[in-house]
Write a structure and sequence with these properties.
The chain is mostly helical. Helices cover about 80% and strands about 0% of the residues. The longest helix is centred in the first third of the chain and has 44 residues. It is elongated. Pfam families: SpoIIM (PF01944). This is Stage II sporulation protein M.
Length: about 325
């Protein structure tokens, strides 16, 4: 191989790669056009091959080191730089994107919340009017513990907090994903989950109220419920968005409507996962802790809810 001729033929590529890398290192990958990004990737592969050839032919340490530096810089910008931009995009979504999509989809979230509250009211009404209603919703063992022993059940979490917390997270995620997936049933399953969970909360709330245990019960619920329940309402709203695309695509073709509304639903799902993880951690470690005074639990729950409302109301 004629080394000088090979270097002369390849040197323009090396210089071009160096020029592109200087721009990326100074202004970021977004400063390049799509064509230049493809060129950057192509030149990286080409120079990496040149480096391998230079090592094989032993063309000299200076050139090998120069090519090694070029390939290292290119690798850093193409791979690590893209990962950094991905993390920046994630942070940007949680900073501004999630509040924006919550505001855009608020009517659907409000309908899901209304379905839940309907379940609460129905359970409260029937639990007071018909004693046979309670066992239809609440397990007999829980009813017996509250009515006969005058005790709540949350103390069973104490001592197994990590296991309880992970189980709670999995359960909450299952309910939420079920509510989202229920959209493909034209919203029927989403509606069922919202109403059923409202019935369950309403029945249990009435049970503890009838047996004078409401204050410690709601002290347990408030800290994690301030995030857990809104997350479930968001999931219900996501399911109803999918149902809207199926039932009422409007001026769009149904496939296009599913893409549009499905994108918003996916963003809501992406947003509720950390909410449920935090809520599960609180429910496992903070809410049942007997050493924490009940007034502090109420304050923590109300404080978290206020912060959530302020966060979701943010505008860029």
């Amino acid at each position: 191989m004629n080394i000088q001729r090979w270097i002369a033929r390849r040197e323009l590529n090396w210089q071009r790669l160096d020029t592109l890398l200087r721009q990326v290192e100074k202004k970021g990958l977004k400063s390049l056009r799509a064509m230049e990004i493809r060129e950057l990737a192509s030149l990286y592969r080409s120079v990496a091959a040149d480096l391998a050839r230079a090592r094989t032919q032993k063309v000299g340490n200076t050139l090998i080191q120069s090519l090694q530096s070029l390939t290292t810089r290119a690798y850093t910008q193409i791979y690590q730089g893209s990962r950094r931009q991905e993390w920046q995009a994630v942070l940007e979504f949680y900073k501004w994107g999630l509040p924006a999509v919550v505001q855009q989809t608020f009517p659907y979230i409000a309908i899901a919340t209304a379905l839940f509250l309907l379940g609460v009211l129905v359970a409260w009404w029937y639990a007071w009017q018909d004693p046979s209603f309670m066992p239809l919703i609440v397990p007999e063992s829980l009813i017996s513990r509250v009515r006969d022993d005058r005790k709540l059940w949350m103390g069973s979490i104490v001592g197994i907090e990590p296991l309880a917390s992970s189980s709670i997270m999995i359960n909450n995620l299952s309910v939420s994903f079920g509510a989202v997936a229920g959209g493909i049933t034209a919203g029927a399953y989403t509606t069922y989950l919202m109403i059923f969970n409202g019935l369950l909360i309403g029945a249990i709330g009435t049970l503890v109220g009838q047996n004078h245990l409401a204050y410690p019960f709601w002290a347990f619920v408030f800290p994690h419920g301030s995030l857990e329940l809104p997350a479930i309402f968001f999931a219900g709203g996501a399911g109803l968005l999918i149902a809207r695309a199926i039932l009422f695509p409007g001026k769009y073709r149904r496939r296009d409507a599913l893409k549009s509304y499905g994108s918003q639903a996916a963003q809501l799902v992406f947003g509720i996962v950390p909410m449920l993880v935090i809520a599960g951690t609180i429910e496992g470690f903070f809410s049942p802790n007997p050493s924490i005074p009940d007034p502090l639990k109420y304050l923590a729950g109300m404080g978290l809810f206020v912060l959530l409302v302020m966060y979701c109301s943010r505008k860029r």
